Task: structure prediction
Amino acid sequence: MLLTAALVFTALVQVAGLGLVPALLGFAALVVAVLIWEASFPGSGEAAPHADRLMPAIVDRAVEAVVSDLPDPTIVLTPESMVVAFNESAQQITPGILRGEPISFALRVPNEMRRIEFFQRVPTDRWWEATIAPLVLPGGAGPDRHLVLLALRDLTPLRRVEEMRADFVANASHELRTPLASLSGFIETLQGPARNDPSSRDRFLAIMKEQATRMARLIDDLLSLSRIEQKVHIHPDTTTDLVMIVHEVAAGLSPLAQERDVEIKITDRARSLDVLGDRDELIRVFENLIENALKYGASGKRVDICLAREPATGEARDAIVSVRDYGPGIAPEHLPRLTERFYRVDIGESRAQGGTGLGLALVKHILNRHRGRLMIESTPGSGANFSVRLPLSRAGRAAHISK
Ligand code: ADP
Result:
């Protein structure tokens, strides 16, 4: 380039009469420009630069395409553990990852293993399984054709389910063991010290009956839960009227309401609320909610049940049934956990009321299967409101329009 420029300037001086000084200055400016160019882009006209020597031609379109289509976080490495390609999910879990840099800068994974599980604490607790496999590209035997594929699988949901299952078995066993221990204790007492004491025998037998009932109730709830879980993906297809169900359930619970000195008031804002649902399961939902209001909210002396369509004007889509009590209510920190199995605000009170801690878990599962929702609102000191939202059946919506 400089040689050509020198020849051009010489020709300009001799043929076109350019002055020697401007010609020399022009040539010097060109030399400086070439030097600056060299400093900014070293070796652009010569051998491959440093970065390219590390990964010559390995940003292969095919590799990029394969990796970007994989759903799990996936990274392609050179045998020296340099990052060649990665997909978006890999970038999400290792934000520091960069092409051409050692993977160890972004992720610490021992390289002598082929399948490993590891735990990440930041930004959230996560369990990963990493599979490391050699990836040989066709076309040539150079080191750039021998890559390493690193695929990650998120094990967190699986681990959570395993943990929940273990917790559930532990909780269920504990719940059953308590009444069982009490039964065994009373049996021993009746066989021994109280053998000839008719008055304590009657008292003990009454307690034993209560404990046996509690165990039966618990087993019943556990079985219902597992039955509903098995059917969770099968949507019910029989038409059921919620107005009839709620009135029936409330009537069935009127002895309990009388016993607790609570008045149940039902407001019907709809003549019928037809949904596609399993009648027995829906009865269970409202039995649990109204019974809870009578048990935990008895001090409010009143339970209001309201049945309505939503939206109230125009074509309705959903049925809303709310059960409101005026008892002590529930502190906000408990609200998100109420539908967990065995979660109770006050274990002692729940047991005293004959509760199993599974009622609201059952309600939630049944509603999930019916594509419905449970909403809980409460102001501590002034009561709680449990409302159920269920989609109306096609006939249920039409019935409203024709009225
Ligand atoms: P339980 O068998 O204990 O009644 P649930 O799942 O039905 O189990 O309810 C879980 C907990 O939610 C109860 O133990 C109670 O602490 C609380 N709870 C439910 N309904 C009410 C309510 N209407 N008012 C106050 N607390 C309630």
User: Anything to note?
Assistant: The radius of gyration is 38 Å.
